[in-house]
Specification:
InterPro entries: ClpP/crotonase-like_dom_sf, Enoyl-CoA_hyd/isom_CS, Enoyl-CoA_hydra/iso, Enoyl-CoA_hydra_C
Pfam families: ECH_1 (PF00378)
Family: Belongs to the enoyl-CoA hydratase/isomerase family.
Keywords: Lyase
Strand order of the largest sheet: 6-7-8-9-11-14
GO biological process, one term: fatty acid beta-oxidation
Distance between the termini: 27 Å
Mean pLDDT: 77
Structural class: alpha/beta
Shape: globular
Order of helices and strands: HEEEEEEEHEEEHEEHHEHEHHHH
Radius of gyration: 19 Å
Number of helices: 10
Low-confidence stretches: 1-64
Largest sheet: 6 strands, mixed
Helix content: 25-40%
């Protein structure tokens, strides 16, 4: 989790989208309120949880509310398998201080081996700001407000991104005498192309959601709604499209693409064959073939 550790030194503030640089925000207090839907347990740093009813479980923290800055919400019913990482440092606008980064790293680590989770949506509960991480399952960043500097670098760490048309995104570090230092100089060129990435970083330019989708920075852009969560709703819609697919196959496809883009095409093909071989013996692969022959929807279990 080197990526997240580096943010303990470089801080950014996020707003229900992603965030601007905020050097003074290190260690500023923040809080998050979490209600987990469903009853599956996630390792919880020793904190107990209690169920209110059959479909709604609240995660109770031993820490004070002000000390909880990142937490998890599991969806249930038809959305079972989708998890939401919730960020809420109200006073510090999700600034990436040490507590925030530590809690994010711990949560991501616990999700990493959770086979019940098929898609992860990262969203902010702070009006106007966002933040994210590295996981084996698909991740979707919902940018409903500002994603500036480190905030955009965090969104770039996700596989997919949605944004409100009114959102503002940019790697603005050069306007502060810095350069992107948490992956932005490497991930942005891979997302939008080398020449355009240089232009955006050299100028520190901000772009809105519609421009971002035109250049390939985000996958989908939509008009903001009165609740200020249009990008989140679009991210959830995208997660629901991924959810029915075979989870092991989706993870292996992600691994093949992520690892393959770092090497030459011959090595990339070898990585693809390796990932393909890991899918062949799965029950999901057998179920997919059986469902095709029987002309019925597949019922994947992640086995």
């Amino acid at each position: 989790m080197t990526f997240l550790r580096r943010f303990a030194i470089r801080h950014c503030s996020l707003s229900r989208g992603l965030g601007a640089l905020s050097p003074a925000s290190l260690g500023a207090p923040g809080s998050v309120t979490l209600h987990r839907l469903g009853v599956e347990k996630l390792p919880s740093r020793g904190r107990p949880f209690t169920g209110h009813n059959d479909t709604h479980t609240s995660w109770l923290h031993t820490e004070t509310p002000e000390s909880v800055e990142v937490d998890l919400k599991r969806l249930d019913g038809e959305d079972t398998g989708i998890a939401e990482v919730l960020m809420c440092r109200q006073k510090a606008k999700n600034a990436l201080g040490r507590v925030f980064v530590s809690q994010m790293r711990e949560l991501v680590s616990s999700l990493h081996h959770d086979t019940a989770v098929r898609v992860v949506v990262f969203r902010s509960l702070v009006q106007g700001v966002f933040c994210a991480a590295l996981l084996p399952m698909p991740t979707v960043a919902a940018v409903d407000g500002f994603a500036l500097g480190g905030g955009l670098e965090l969104a770039l760490a996700c596989d997919l991104r949605t944004a409100a048309n009114s959102a503002q995104m940019g790697l603005i570090e050069t306007t502060r005498g810095l350069l992107p230092g948490a992956g932005g100089s490497q991930r942005l060129p891979r997302a939008v192309g080398f020449a355009l990435a240089k232009e955006l970083i050299f100028t520190g330019r901000r772009v809105d959601g519609q421009r971002a989708v035109d250049m390939g920075l985000v996958n989908r852009a939509t008009e903001q709604n009165s609740d200020g969560d249009a990008a989140y709703r679009e991210a959830l819609s995208l997660a629901r499209e991924i959810l029915p697919q075979a989870p092991i196959a989706v993870r292996m496809a992600k691994e093949a693409m992520n690892r393959g883009m770092e090497v030459d095409i011959t090595s990339g093909m070898a990585i693809e064959r390796m990932c393909y071989a890991r899918v062949i013996p799965t029950r999901d692969r057998q179920e997919g073939m059986a469902a095709f022959i029987e002309k019925r929807p597949p019922r994947y279990t992640g086995e």
